[in-house]
Specification:
By secondary structure, the protein is an alpha+beta fold. The protein has four helices and 17 strands. It has a single domain, classed as Creatinase/methionine aminopeptidase superfamily (Creatine Amidinohydrolase, Alpha-Beta Complex). The strands form five sheets. The chain has a five-stranded antiparallel β-sheet. One magnesium ion binds next to loops.
Length: 252
């Protein structure tokens, strides 16, 4: 069923997406445990490929608009869409792992930020604030609310901690396609925007910068970094709007 271009999911479809999300959560646990200093981001991609296959799911990022890998790995001032390759991860880095898969025709999409070894206190604060801002956004995803309530909840929380939210990249609806309407910005005004309805499934994904919100794209045409070179963190969950409130699908 569609509503204003938004594809509402049936309870049966949400059941499949719950499984797609659970499998992805398992994989992210494996990836988080695997990340270590001295490892290349390409090695992390190999693990992702293996773990997706092991679960009889399909990679969704590989080949998406020509993306050449199974996951995105973005380090330090890189925000999102980093391409796994020969770069070696090192102590003190923040590594953002964004992963997705397709299970029985449905997508899940989730991201985490992982510190490697000993990192400065301010890096841990950035990671915690970003993770908490995602939780604030999720709490706002109720069937009596509007998209602006999610956006505002994320933005208010992030800015109260002295950080900025990326504006040029946003969350999104998700289902049989990785990106469906509506867009879910991480900034906005409470009470504005489309009403949320039971059966909507959305990816909420705050990208939070220590410095300004502006971004740049690298010469590889994928990797997005902070324009001012400041550190960035990213967390994402696939969330269903149910009559009882938000349900995080990409969790164990
Ligand atoms: Mg993602
Ligand atoms: Mg996403």
């Amino acid at each position: 069923m569609t509503s204003g271009g938004i594809i509402l999911k049936s309870d049966r479809e949400i059941g499949i997406m719950r499984e797609a999300g659970r499998l992805l959560a398992e994989i992210l646990v494996v990836l988080k445990k695997s990340v270590q200093a001295g490892m290349t981001t390409a090695e992390l991609d190999v693990i992702a490929a293996r773990e997706i296959k092991k679960r009889k799911a399909e990679p969704s990022f590989l080949g998406y608009k020509g993306f050449p890998a199974h996951i995105c790995v973005s380090i330090n001032d890189e925000i999102v869409h980093g391409i796994p390759g020969p770069r070696v991860m090192k102590e003190g880095d923040i590594v953002k792992i964004d992963a997705g898969l397709i299970y029985m025709g449905f997508q899940s999409d989730s991201a985490v930020s992982v510190p490697i070894g000993e990192v400065p206190e301010d890096v841990l604060k950035l990671i915690d604030a970003t993770s908490e801002s995602l939780m604030e956004g999720i709490k706002a995803a109720r069937p009596d609310a509007r998209i602006g309530d999610i956006s505002s909840a994320v933005q208010q929380f992030v800015e109260s901690r002295g950080y900025s939210v990326v504006r040029e990249y946003v969350g999104h609806g998700i289902g049989r396609s990785l990106h469906e309407p509506p867009q879910i910005p991480n900034y906005g005004v409470a009470g504005k925007g489309l009403p949320l309805r039971k059966g909507m499934v959305i990816a909420i994904e705050p990208m939070v910068n220590v410095g300004g919100w502006r971004t740049k794209v690298a010469q590889d045409n994928w990797t997005v970094s902070t324009l001012d070179g400041s550190l960035s963190a990213h967390f994402e969950h696939t969330v269903a709007v149910t009559e009882n409130g938000p349900e995080v699908l990409s969790a164990l």
